[in-house]
Input
Amino acid sequence: MSATSQKPIRETILRVLGDVVPNADTQAINPDITFHDQLELDSIDFLRLMMSLEKELNVTIFDFDYPKLSTLTGCERYLSERTAAVT
Output
């Protein structure tokens, strides 16, 4: 997984996160701390984030995988694998 393939996915995650949580400072996010702990993201916001990422990236995110997507690093890793599997 190269840095070049990670960048568009990270940008997409941060943009969608900014849509879901408009007052979030997405540039200050620590990639290894959960979104919930940093942004007070509740379960409804998290679900909106997952559904928006599915739509943006044209992937399926299984609900049993949600814990893997609780951090920016986890999101990038998971979505990189899912988008690679689609193409």
Q: What stands out?
A: The two ends are 14 Å apart (CA to CA). The helical segments are 3-20, 35-39, 43-57, 72-86. Residues 3-86 form a domain with the Non-ribosomal Peptide Synthetase Peptidyl Carrier Protein; Chain A fold (CATH 1.10.1200.10). The first helix runs from residue 3 to 20.
